[in-house]
Write a structure and sequence with these properties.
Blueprint (H helix, E strand, L loop, with lengths): L1 H10 L5 H29 L6 H6 L6 E7 L4 E6 L2 E2 L13 E5 L5 E3 L5 E2 L5 E2 L1 E8 L7 E5 L2 E5 L7 E3 L2 H7 L16
Length: 187
């Protein structure tokens, strides 16, 4: 009886090769899921109004990459060529931003975004939308958010931040969106 117990104990001292492979596979899957989620969260934690243009230009897109924030402006998403990316939702604002755009008479007017049609063709209210295009141009407007004013230029110029609305109006220049050639324009 003594020898039988010793024999059984010596057979159960380790794992079989299949058990080891299963354990390694499970650990690898858990690690892979955890690390990929961490990387996604790091990507979106760093997105701000100051660097969102650069962030969008780094996305893989053919025609347009954009950030769309849905009412009540708590969650924003990145869309590449009208397809939602797998990047987790993030927030850019504390409350609803005020967006202004110059009209055809060069007057600064409040701007309201059109509704967004989701994959099921249901309209969703948009509180903010910012786009960059394949030629590296982007949306052009003034955003009042977080007690500051952010001026987004249509081309590669960086975002400018000023503390007051009057300072922001001084920075706006209609000539930025017109060609710099000397021609006669019919306006």
């Amino acid at each position: 009886m003594q020898t039988l117990r010793m024999h059984n104990a010596s057979n159960n001292k380790g794992f079989t090769l299949i058990e080891l492979l299963i354990v390694i596979l499970i650990i690898g899957l858990i690690y892979g899921l955890f690390v990929s989620n961490l990387n996604k969260k790091k990507d979106v934690e760093g997105i701000t109004l100051l660097n969102m243009k650069t962030t969008l230009l780094q996305q893989p897109f053919k025609q347009k990459s954009e950030i769309i924030c849905f009412e009540p402006c708590e969650e924003c998403f990145i869309y590449n060529d009208n397809e939602k990316t797998d990047i987790a939702p993030f927030s850019l604002f504390q409350g609803v931003p005020k967006v202004y755009k110059k009209d055809q008479f060069s007057q600064l007017q409040p701007y309201t975004f059109l509704a967004f049609l989701d994959a099921q063709e249901k309209p969703q209210d948009v509180c903010f939308r910012f786009s960059v295009f394949e030629n590296k141009s982007s949306s052009y407007y003034l955003v009042e958010a977080n007690k500051q004013f952010y001026l987004f230029h249509p081309y590669l110029k960086d975002v400018e931040v000023v503390p007051t609305f009057s300072d922001a109006k001084k920075l706006l220049d209609l000539h930025e969106i017109l060609p710099r050639e000397h021609r006669d324009y019919d306006f």
